[in-house]
Amino acid sequence: MPYFKSFGRDFSDYQKRTKDFDIGDASLNGYEHKKLFRNNGNGTFTDIANAVGADRLEDGRGVALIDFDSDGYPDILIRNYRMKAALYCNANISGNNYLNVRLAGTKSNHDAIGAKIKITSAGKTQIREVYAGSGFLSMSTLTQFFGLGKADKVDSLEVLWPSGAKQVFKDIPANRMVKITEGKNEPVIEELKPRIPREMVAAAVHEREAKKAAH
């Protein structure tokens, strides 16, 4: 029986003309150029995959975010079908600041699935929701990543727990991991220690840019 298969696509309306949509025993998934979209902060996004070396053609199936090298910036892991996985390390050559948040529920479920985190920094507000499952057979870390630009602190951090409880914390310094336990008034604030020296990361970025320029 003819069929089509794909991962993460939605054909919402083809006017039910199945005889015109029959593509036979074929696949629409795999080997597309990867996309990496940067939030421009004004409601638009820019695809920067080619510019940062993420524009590849492996048959990607699952994607997950994780801070692989413990430098505070999210890295991207892609699981490819019958191929080696690809790890895209975030070198953060911009020098921008961050805040990472990890929740632990008590009245709510332990992993805080369903909790919402709202931060305000330098007049801008960001919201994250903790959820399980981020793609086909994949799941990102439960740590929530917030980019702060050049701001050196978070003015306000608000957590709305699945239980209905609400907690608010003020004046949290940038470039920290913040661990919040439901019901506790004081979060644990830690500085991260990168597993890979920044000098090695900078050298790898320089080498990549040199290869691109040579081509």
State the helicity in percent bands: under 10%
The CA-CA distance between the termini, in Å, is 46 Å
Q: Structural class given helices, strands, pairing?
A: mainly beta
Name the strands of the widest sheet in spatial order.
9-6-12-13
pLDDT < 50 stretches: 1-19
Major pleated sheet = 4 strands, mixed
Helix-strand sequence: EEEEEEEEEEEEEH
- What number is the mean pLDDT? 82
**How many beta strands in the DSSP annotation?**
13
Q: Please, how many helices?
A: 1
The fraction of residues assigned to DSSP E strands is 25-35%
What does the radius of gyration come to?
21 Å
What is the overall shape? globular
Characterization of the model:
By secondary structure, this protein is mainly beta. It contains 1 helix and 13 strands. The chain has a 4-stranded mixed sheet with strand order 9-6-12-13, with no helix packed on it. Residues 1-19 have low confidence and may be disordered.
Give me some keywords for this one:
215 residues; mainly beta; 4-stranded mixed beta sheet; 4-stranded antiparallel beta sheet; 13 strands
Summarize the structure.
The chain has 215 residues and is mainly β.
Question: Helices, strands, pairings?
Answer:
Elements: E1 37-39, E2 45-47, E3 60-66, E4 75-80, E5 86-88, E6 97-104, E7 116-121, E8 124-129, E9 144-149, E10 153-160, E11 166-173, E12 176-181, E13 188-190, H1 198-214
